[in-house]
Fold this sequence. Notes:
The chain is 43% helix and 16% strand. The protein is α+β, with helices and mostly antiparallel strands and 167 residues long. It folds into 2 domains: 1-30; 51-164, no CATH class.
Amino acid sequence: MTVARQQRKAWFGGRLALGALLALVVAVARPPMAGAITERIVVDNLSGLAISGFDPVAYFTDHAARIGDGAFEYVYRGVVWRFCNEGNRAAFARDPTVYMPRFGGYDPSSLARAVARAGHPMIWLIADQRLYLFSVAENRNAFATRTDQSIAAAERGWREVEPMLVP
């Protein structure tokens, strides 16, 4: 192998390694859900949907996380929400604050530390007739053991975080 070819090969191999390292850093730094962390309501970066297109009413009616249907959408606070059926969409339209996740879908355990971290629609809990989404199951479990104290701490953190988020 000539010296020039060895140098080209070494240069290409170094660039390849740098690219792989950059890809690894991006993958590790990515949150568990592709949610915006600058909005007052968590929005999926890929789809533009609130809570990744899950039906917020289904958590209450079906006691399950159900993905919504594109045929049943409703825009509230500038964000598209999806629903499983017309009845769920109508219920949400009558009073969105009853069904939408508290704190815009941010993890209340993270908010208690004044950190805006998107909750995941599959890790949820209904407490005091409100929907809460969590980034990890451990946060949900800790929240459930001390609900009143956890809600109070999240409310204090939300007052700090909310003004920094885009309306």
